[in-house]
Amino acid sequence: MNHPTTSGMQRSLRQCLSHMAAMLYRHGHVLETVTVSHRGLDRQALKALGSASSDWSQCQKVLENSQAATWNDQQRLVLTGLGRELLFDMFGEGAADCA
Description:
The protein is mostly helical.
């Protein structure tokens, strides 16, 4: 049985990942933007997403604080292994093919 805090955090993470995926598609991005480690969202894209959605900033914080997202060498936001695993679990492995 999951500890209530763990299951609550995972639910919140899943909600943020779902919101992130919808926002990416609405703004012309694909999931590979955040699932491929050398790609990612730059600060300008993040600012646009934040302007379009009042809860984007909170979701980004949840993703970063839970270590489901991080900044790559190019200073772009990308999902970590944890974030990708949850995303693929939710949408299917083929949802963001890295091949």
